[in-house]
Amino acid sequence: MKAPTSELSAHRTPAPDPERWPDIVTPPRTSRTRTALAERIVRNALARLPLRARLADGGSLGLGGPLMDIREPELFFRRIGAHGLIGFGESYMAGEWDSPDLVGVLTVLAGHAAELVPRPLQRLRGLWAARRPAGHTNTPEHARDNISHHYDLSNDLFSLFLDETLTYSAAYFRGFPAERSLLPAAQHRKIDRLLDLAAVGPGSTLLEIGTGWGELAIRAAGRGARVVTVTLSAEQRELAEARIRAAGFEDLVEVRLCDYREITGEYAAIVSVEMIEAVGEEYWPVYFTTLERLLAPGGRIALQAITMPDDRMRAGRTTYTWIQKYIFPGGLLPSTQAVERVTADHTCLRIRQRTPFGTHYAETLRLWRERFTERTDEIDALGFDATFRRMWTFYLAYSEAGFRSGYLDVQQLLLTREETA
Questions:
Q1: 269 with 298: CB under 8 angstroms?
Q2: Which of 248, 250, 298, 383 is the residue whose CA sits 20 to 30 A from 101?
Q3: Domain end among 74, 96, 129
């Protein structure tokens, strides 16, 4: 039975601005054959999954579970046929599908990611998957634009859903489910674990690659360390410097607006939190050789990195994704094995300790997503429209689902230089 018109129209997404969202306003053109093939693959995949996909024509797919409401099947399948997973995300942005439990649906899909497309067709990935635009490659010239695309959106926007520490990375909780009031303490616990890992204390010289809004630098200065912290985001630098001054640590912390490749000096401790994801695979050797060059003898490097399975990373390393198009241009998540390979092949750095805590990131993202959803009016007042809000809701839910399913992990790594005779 077809859903009543009133039920569907009650959930219509406001029409996107055609100048700001051209690919959302105008569905892609693609052949009927390609659309039909995509529909067959998607229907077969959904039929085997523990969810319920309800189509506007009255059909239903799946074994039961969280509801996926496909309101405009023709456009939904056409977008996937034209652009794969980019089309899947764009279809959500356009309001062509929705869910009362978006994280639940995406968690099911993430948990079965390796089997959604039949293996024979997976081998043909290079024939249909979009390639990353040349401008997203993280050259020194492009890296600043890629970072600015996300981190220079608005300090006010990030302050609406982050806690008062303005820490935009996985927190470390004592128990689950996590309460929002405990998020600041969990963020400080995460920071302190990294500073302990790098042996940061009174008189330490610390380099931080990726300033964020300054909380780690403030925490390190509170231990008596002298900190140089670098960022490519002008908005972040401005607010980080203000927060450092307010904390009374401007004499101990220097915030530089520069690329990691431009850093000079020697540091007893280096810390970088969820920054390697923005480096790009072709620059991982440069990133790690830079860390080695800047590390003082006997020094320690503490990294926090989001990781994915090595086989999935290898399969998708050249593919252009929805996250890269809309959220993090030029980004690529490494695997633990990739870090081991790059450091072994290009440096004397070795991983000495590794602590995974992916479930903590799922909880962190849940708290951010819930607060983001609650602040609709304030987000609108900043000039971000309904399509932007759907895009960010999808991004936060998509990320949370990755960690809930175990497809993604986040790890704190200790690296030291291997001593040679």
A1: no
A2: 383
A3: 129
